[in-house]
Design goal:
The complex is a heterodimer of chains A (about 90) and B (about 190).
Chain A lengths: L13 E4 L2 E16 L3 E8 L6 E6 L3 E3 L30
Antiparallel strand pairs in A: 1-2, 1-5, 2-3, 3-4
Chain B lengths: L4 H7 L1 H18 L6 H33 L4 H12 L3 H4 L4 H8 L6 H5 L5 H21 L13 H30 L5
Helix pairs in contact in B: 1-2, 1-3, 2-3, 3-4, 3-8, 3-9, 8-9
The chains are: A mainly beta (about 90), B mainly alpha (about 190).
């Protein structure tokens, strides 16, 4: 019996197809371990204009295209750090 | 013949989820529930059954796709996967029998022949049940005021539709096992 491993990728991960590195997209769904040897399968969105396309990919075919760790907001220093909303009045209509 | 992963899931976790939904419906029918809650539960159960059956059909289709391309060189697989993922009816449309046919017949056979629709009256009844389920699903999902021609949604009707889904699921799984074995020259799963 095949051992089912938990999915390595999460929804929203930006991924690339290992054998076709020019193809990048996003994980948008899980099909579960339906590939041979109980490999996980995902729905991948391929951003295209005017309409995105979708394809099935297996875990062994893809890798992360970008690290997904949350990036901390850059620290603002200097004069702009002391700005308050009152310093930025809404534009007045002419 | 071993079941596909999709069928194992349909008969396992999906069947349990539907059984829980059914128990909730029966409970709300046997107690005095506030303001039409039992009707809401029946509508939810109908939509849930249709959704789970759609999930089963879609997963079986993709399981077959991945099995079919597993014999190809790795650099050729992605192109075929993209081809087979294009305009899949079961990704968006209800699991009507015509949608199921449209996707599975991409493997190059007549699903009616494989299931014995014309020779076995029980298969024709099951297909009728699936199509009734999807009409009722639309009635529930869109809160239509006119009940479907098959009659109002009742627990007995849903049980019959569920039995039809079970029958077609087993038949489809067997048909695909045989077809994939023919294509691959070995057991597909």
């Amino acid at each position: 019996m095949d051992v089912v491993k938990p999915p390595r990728f999460a929804l929203g991960d930006k991924i690339r197809v290992i054998l076709h590195p020019e193809v990048t997209g996003f994980i948008v769904g899980f099909y579960g371990p339906i590939a041979p040897n109980s490999e996980q399968a995902y729905s991948m969105r391929l951003p295209r204009k005017p309409k995105s396309r979708y394809t099935i990919v297996t875990e062994g075919q893809i890798e992360l295209a970008e690290p997904t760790a949350a990036v901390a907001a850059p620290e603002i220093s200097g004069e702009s750090a002391n700005l308050k909303s009152a310093d930025c009045p809404l534009p007045v209509a002419p | 013949m071993p079941p596909s992963k999709a069928l194992s899931k349909w008969q396992g976790t999906q069947s349990l989820a539907l059984a829980e939904m059914e128990a909730q419906c029966i409970a709300s029918l046997t107690v005095i529930s506030p303001g039409g809650l039992s009707d809401e539960n029946l509508r939810c159960y109908t939509m849930s059954l249709s959704a789970h059956f759609q999930e089963f059909c879609r997963e079986l289709y993709f399981e077959c796709v991945l099995a079919a391309i597993s014999g190809l060189p790795p650099d050729q697989r992605f192109a075929l996967q993209t081809q087979c993922s294009s305009r899949v009816e079961l990704e968006g449309a209800n699991p009507r029998f015509e949608s199921i046919r449209a996707d599975f017949e991409r493997f190059g056979f007549d699903l009616n022949e494989e299931l014995g629709t014309k020779t076995d009256p029980s298969v024709a009844r099951m297909i009728g049940g699936i199509n009734q389920l999807n009409t009722a699903r639309n009635y529930a999902a869109h809160r239509k005021t006119k009940p479907p021609a098959s009659g109002p949604i009742t627990i007995t009707a849903i049980e019959q539709w569920r039995a039809a889904c079970d029958g077609i699921a087993v038949g489809l799984d067997a048909a695909m096992y045989n077809k994939m074995a023919q294509i691959l020259g070995r057991a597909p799963w």
